[in-house]
Design brief:
alpha+beta; 6 helices; 5 strands; 48% helix; globular; Arc Repressor Mutant, subunit A; Dna Ligase, domain 1; two-stranded antiparallel sheet; 3-stranded mixed β-sheet; 2 domains; 147 residues; single chain
Length: 147
């Protein structure tokens, strides 16, 4: 295991303990699966990647990991929720979402464009008397398989 992965597991354990939860082997397997898949993944994909975990166990553990701020749910355009590690672990990014099959892929906006986007969103928030705490950008279209 790399030092970066070790650091991720240390932080996941800390976040779970702060919620009174234990970093079980099942939760560790889910973190490893999300790291291995490298994009937002559905429960069936996670199950395929870590076949020994039952579907109910995956859902239960994802719920705990989500509440602890370790994973976040990503909405696609199909019936499957997708899960990925929180930005703290994988960096700030956005999503390309296929409107036909629902596949979600990550992309990073160049720093200058991200700065312009933040400035625009801060202006909109100020006009709307809204306190901005972050943003997400989802681009919709067709993946290479569906195009």
């Amino acid at each position: 295991m790399t030092a970066a992965r070790d650091g991720i597991h240390v932080e996941v354990g800390r976040r779970l303990r702060s919620r009174g939860l234990v970093y079980t082997s099942g939760r560790r397997q889910l973190i490893e699966a999300l790291l291995g898949i490298g994009r937002p993944a559905t429960v069936p994909e996670l199950r395929k990647h870590r076949g020994r975990l039952t579907q109910s166990s995956i859902y239960r553990n994802l719920g705990d990991l989500e509440q602890a701020g370790v994973v976040r749910r990503v909405a696609g355009t199909d019936d499957h929720a997708r899960y990925e590690l929180d930005e703290y672990f994988i960096g700030h990014h956005h999503h390309l979402i296929c409107v036909k099959c629902g596949r979600v892929s990550d992309f990073v906006v160049p720093h200058e464009a991200e700065r312009t986007l933040n400035a625009t969103l801060n202006k909109a928030a100020k006009l709307g008397k809204f306190r901005l705490t972050g943003h997400r950008l989802d681009a919709l279209g067709l993946c290479v398989s569906c195009a």
